[in-house]
Amino acid sequence: MFQPTSSSICRNPPGREVKFSWRGDSSCQAVLCVTPSDTLALVLSHDVVVEITLHKHIRICRIGGVAATICSGGRVAAVHHPSIEIVQQETQVLFDMVQGARVRATSDTVHVLGVKGTDPSTRVHSITKQEILTHENISVATDKFCLRRDIDATVALFLDDIGGGDVLGIYEDKHERCMLAARQAIVDQKGNQLSAIVQGVKVKHDMDNGNTRIYCGRNFISLCVSTHALTLHSPWVDINVDRWSRTRLRRGEQIIETSRSRLQISQNSMHADFTLSPVASADELSSSSEPKDDDF
Q1: How far is CA 61 from CA 47, 148, 192, 217, in A?
Q2: Closest alpha carbon to 212 in 49, 83, 21, 13
Q3: Could you tell me the pTM of the whole model?
Q4: Which of 99, 107, 160, 183 could form a disulfide with 276 if both were Cys (CB 3.0 to 4.6 A apart)?
Q5: Over the stretch 43-55, which tens digit does the pLDDT of each residue have?
Q6: Taking the CB of residue 295, how many other CB atoms lie within 10 A of it?
Q7: Widest CA span in the chain
Q8: What are the CB-based long-range contacts (under 8 Å, 24+) for 108-111?
Q9: In angstroms, what CA-CA distances link 119 with 105, 122, 226?
């Protein structure tokens, strides 16, 4: 059954109109609404929300936790996670890790900045298909790097779809088109399994644990609520963050893998292994923020 939640979005979903769907004598424990941004939001149990645009761009989030978004063709995708921020735009990938390291990957080179090294002058490592270069040209690693760990990039990328692609005609008003899509949606519950088809996007949700899977064409996203494990697949990229916050991204012959202490890059036949700076624990952070005697 539907799990109680303290989130205000489940008690008072955003949007202009709420639609419930029933099948037989059992009501489906989900809320489908049209948001003020003219998108469709399916509010589920365990603070999970799935948002869909008219062009089938998708965003899934657990409120206050993880989030992922992907456009209908898979050309743009992003992951917001406590351990890492990832943005993929066609052939470019940006990583921002909680350990402080940054990775910028293009179609033929992976640039790494901010890893631990024995040489203090070492700033940037560039892994190509033929060699590994070490240099101080920071611009190749930071060019177009606009990620910030305190901002969820999935929101901006998802809403970026709102401004374009209108089809003129009888349903040129986006709100009316969203209302039509909401009325045509199918939401069904069998036992603890909830299924929905909204704007052609299929959603599978487990009411007991909140685990959710989303299918749209060749795109796929899955979220495990209890562990924050997340998988995103598209024709462009495969991203996986497992229950231990280890990350693996694969795009063609490029593979980027991270753990708490290591960063591994594979580019064709070239391989590089880097040590990451340790992440301070909550106790260390709180103690470091306490004023010292010299501060008075």
Answers
A1: 8, 18, 20, 20
A2: 49
A3: 0.80
A4: 99
A5: 999 999 999 999 9
A6: 6
A7: 71
A8: 109/140, 109/267, 110/254, 110/256, 110/265, 110/267, 110/272, 111/140, 111/141
A9: 23, 5, 41
Single-letter residue type at 91:
T
Q: Is 213 exposed, middle or buried (0-12, 13-18, 19+ CB in 10 A)?
A: middle
Determine which helix (DSSP H) or strand (DSSP E) holds 177, and give its type and residue range: helix 174-184
CA distance 54 to 224: 26
- In angstroms, rounded to a whole number, what is the distance separating the alpha carbons of residues 188 and 200? 15
CA 21 – CA 121 distance, rounded (Å): 62
Give the span between the Cα atoms of 40 and 259, in whole angstroms.
35
Q: How do residues 195-220 score in pLDDT, each as one tens digit?
A: 999 999 999 999 999 999 999 999 99
Residue 172 corresponds to which tokens in the numbers above? 């040129």
- Hey, what's the torsion of the CAs at 118, 124, 125, 129, to 10 degrees? -170
Question: Is 110 within 8 Å of 256 (Cβ atoms)?
Answer: yes
Residue type at 109 in one-letter notation:
T
Closest C-alpha among 176, 171, 157, 169 to residue 40:
176
- Tell me the C-alpha to C-alpha distance, in Å, between residue 218 and each of 185, 234, 238: 20, 6, 12
pLDDT digits (tens, 9 = 90+) for 111-152: 999 887 656 556 899 999 899 998 888 888 887 666 666 677
Question: Which tokens belong to 112?
Answer: 């790494």
